[in-house]
Amino acid sequence: MATDVTSPAVPVHVAIVMDGNGRWAKQRFLPRLAGHRQGLETLRAVVRWSMARGVRVLTVFAFSSENWKRPVDEVSGLMGLMAKALSREVPELSRSGVRLHFPGDRAALPAAVAQGLAQAERDTAGNDRLVLNVCFNYGGRWDVVQAAARLAQRGEAVTEAGLSAELALAHVPDPDLLIRTGGELRISNFLLWQLAYSELFFSDRLWPAFDEAEFDRALAAYAGRQRRFGLTPEQIQAPSAPAH
User: At the N or C end, where does the chain have fewer CB atoms within 10 A?
Assistant: First the structure.
């Protein structure tokens, strides 16, 4: 999608790597799944804060392609947590005007989970207050490869525009702001194509402890930056030529 050179006070699209659930639980001598449950509470709050501040798209990294390597009981617990969240959260999200998308590879998911994701997308398809992308079994490299494969299957040339149109988040503009919690300074195979010009904000807060004040601190940091998209500051500040 075309990108305007602007510095709006509020980002249209916020992406979040929700990191630190396991460490939060370990600090409290709790099982890792308890951290994921508390992380779900934080996500519920972030959805509310986003809508209150005028964010139009929220994309979160819930389960990565690499997370299958985690202990079997944790992976099984995460699948169960997603299944329960679908039945508990979707009705309220729909009433709030949230449209759900679940970018990711569903082929390896349990059938009940994959069916639940598809049903949630259908049930919220008419909502337009906030688009919530929950990336589940998603990886940035997978996303680029699957997009290129679709073009190849149709015998089309791989162009920037063509590839962008086949990515898992083609239905929304690229993120304006990426927030990563947990103190790590990397993007971990998340939205590799879409984050090319996103502003980055790294928080030391573990995701279950991420609060409204920290969310506002991220938005304030974004509002104070100048997005140039390859131009110089002087080019951005120069007045536009009169139309003829």
Answer: C
